[in-house]
Amino acid sequence: MSGHSHWASIKHKKGAEDAKRSKVFSKVSKLISVAVREKGADPATNPSLRTAIEQAKQVNMPKENIERSIKKGTGELAGESLDSFIFEAFGPDNVALIIEGITDNKNRTLGDIKQILSQHNGKLAGEGSIKWMFERKGVISIAEKRTEELELKIIESGAEDIKWQDDMADVITKPEELEQVKSILEKEGLKIENSSLGWIPKEEVDANKEKLEKLFESLDDNDSVQNIYSNAKW
């Protein structure tokens, strides 16, 4: 599992289970609706919507579901009142966490997240007490075996860094260069698993991976949680 954004691995692990697929569809639907509401319904001019639609396709979300989510975002169809959130927290071993999501009831979600953290030796942190440990970066996930040739292609694309976990590469870019680097990598024939803005730790710390995995799985089971970032080494 990636030590930064957990979307790609969660998608592969849960996408094959019908009961879980419904939950994934619900999360991506919210992502699409909020992206439309914030920056419009045209993917050509709304990178957030384009990314959300790509994620929907990666989990085989039906076209009609995507279109329905877009219409909810524009107000053509009635939908929930959705708000984005970012919670800062400490996990087991004082690992720093940033938890992003979308909810129709922030107070309820806050209580749910507090309970999950408490069950896994974690706790919420004050606003700003965690973010300074991270940098906002573009993150492009590629499922490829590590080779010198691949690393050279990534470096030549203009990427700032590459973080490997097994056969998954997180390609790190400047936020404003995310789309440009992604386009170059696609032209090189590389399959992009996911691309989005994410939070990259300035420094990584040692932590108990098993405890963290259990926490991440519990957080991901919450309908409102979209992404989890940590400064743990993997």
Output the radius of gyration.
17 Å
Name of the CATH superfamily of the largest domain: YebC, transcriptional regulation domain
Q: So what's the CATH class of the largest domain?
A: Alpha Beta
Helix-residue proportion: 40-55%
Strand count, sense and barrel status of the largest sheet are: 4 strands, antiparallel
Number of strands: 8
Low-confidence stretches: 6-16
How much strand?
15-25%
Task: Provide tags for this entry.
single chain, 234 residues, alpha+beta, Arc Repressor Mutant, subunit A, Alpha-Beta Plaits, 3 domains, four-stranded antiparallel beta sheet, 8 helices
Outline of this structure?
The protein is of the alpha+beta class and 234 residues long.
Protein model, in words:
Belongs to the TACO1 family. It is found in: Cytoplasm. GO terms for molecular function: DNA binding. The strands form 2 sheets. This protein has a 4-stranded antiparallel sheet. It has a 4-stranded antiparallel sheet with strand order 5-6-4-7. The protein folds into 3 domains: 7-74, Orthogonal Bundle (Arc Repressor Mutant, subunit A); 83-131 and 203-230, YebC, transcriptional regulation domain (Alpha-Beta Plaits, 2-Layer Sandwich), CATH 3.30.70; 132-201, 2-Layer Sandwich (Alpha-Beta Plaits). Strand 5 (161-165) and strand 6 (168-173) form a beta hairpin. By secondary structure, the protein is of the alpha+beta class. It is 42% helix and 24% strand.
